[in-house]
């Protein structure tokens, strides 16, 4: 693995040289107690699974005193958990698994009901991973491929019903982005409360198609309740390698997905941030962890830094805000 707890602590001591005594002492001894990692969704989802897998591999690096404890605080597309962490002390003992919803689509599509700045109010630490969405239809749908679905939307512009697990969420913006890439073509958007409600609507034939996180709906696809037509990433997913990408289907460069990022409240000392970032990257270099994440639909990707992580979130925000503006969306959380 190449990085030990002693190495991480030594790096913290070196980085703290020249700082004020209190901050330097904090960085040199961090961590001295358990670290609470808030997952802003209920247990069992993709973000929760990825967080637990990562914590399990980071714990030996941080030592017994700094064991990571997962806390689930779901609601409002991740905003409730994010708002909770924003208010915690910036000492490195309250962290957040930020997601494309909590720190991307919510601030972009629902700014009036998102009570935090996704960049200014948080400290970026490291990327955890990302994953694609899937364009899916009912298991008995007459649309056998993506081209067939597009033809049906063109035949009934603005009328063919499509579902998402919430207005302004990642699935909604993915569908709007697809419509923009198809020259403004779209169906009738019907938001539901959660992915299970979307799957039920598809199974009953209430809607024609949907965009959902691939990892979260994998079981429904395997059981035949729904059928996948394409994934939204540039490369095919190892979970369903038979599914083509939207880029392969003619939407060149289409790259849209969900992601998980390790963050904390704004103002965490840089030495503490670097200790956490090094531990995260060291854990994510382990082949066993990468394989387990891949089975959960999460691509660990390349190593990251706090600065590159912050730049990634800023770029995603810009992309999401552009989609909201171009699609003319006016949304509010009911």
From TrEMBL:
InterPro entries: BUG (IPR005064), Bug_dom1 (IPR042100). Pfam families: TctC (PF03401). It comes from the Bacteria. Belongs to the UPF0065 (bug) family. PANTHER family: BLR1237 PROTEIN, TRICARBOXYLATE-BINDING PROTEIN. This is Tripartite tricarboxylate transporter substrate binding protein. It comes from Plastoroseomonas arctica.
């Amino acid at each position: 693995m190449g990085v030990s707890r002693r190495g991480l602590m030594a790096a913290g001591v070196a980085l703290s040289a020249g700082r004020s005594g209190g901050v330097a002492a904090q960085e040199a001894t961090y961590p001295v107690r358990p670290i609470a990692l808030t997952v802003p969704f209920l247990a069992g989802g993709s973000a929760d699974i990825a967080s637990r897998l990562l914590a399990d591999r980071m714990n030996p690096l941080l030592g017994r005193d700094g064991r990571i404890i997962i806390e689930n605080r779901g609601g409002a597309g991740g905003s409730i958990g994010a708002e909770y962490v924003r208010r915690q002390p910036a000492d490195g003992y309250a962290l957040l698994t930020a997601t494309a919803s909590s720190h991307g689509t919510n601030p972009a599509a629902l700014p009036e009901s998102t009570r935090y700045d996704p960049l200014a109010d948080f400290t970026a630490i490291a990327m955890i991973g990302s994953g694609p969405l899937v364009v899916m239809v009912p298991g008995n749908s007459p649309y056998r491929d993506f081209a067939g679905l597009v033809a049906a939307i063109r035949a009934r512009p603005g009328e063919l019903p499509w579902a998402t697990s919430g207005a302004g969420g990642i699935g909604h913006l993915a569908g709007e982005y697809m419509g923009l890439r198809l020259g403004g073509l779209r169906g009738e958007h019907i938001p539901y409360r959660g992915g299970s409600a979307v799957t039920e609507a598809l199974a009953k034939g209430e809607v024609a198609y949907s965009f959902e996180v691939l990892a979260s709906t994998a079981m429904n696809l395997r059981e035949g309740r729904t059928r996948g037509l394409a994934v939204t990433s540039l490369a095919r997913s190892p979970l369903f390698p038979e599914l083509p990408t939207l880029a392969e289907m003619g939407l060149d460069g289409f790259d849209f997905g969900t992601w998980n990022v390790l963050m904390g409240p704004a103002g965490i000392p840089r030495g503490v941030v670097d200790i956490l970032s090094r531990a995260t990257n060291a854990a994510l270099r382990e082949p066993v962890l990468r394989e387990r994440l891949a089975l959960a639909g999460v691509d660990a990707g390349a190593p990251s830094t706090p600065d590159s992580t912050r730049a990634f979130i800023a770029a995603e925000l810009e992309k999401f805000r552009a989609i909201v503006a171009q699609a003319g969306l006016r949304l509010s959380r009911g």
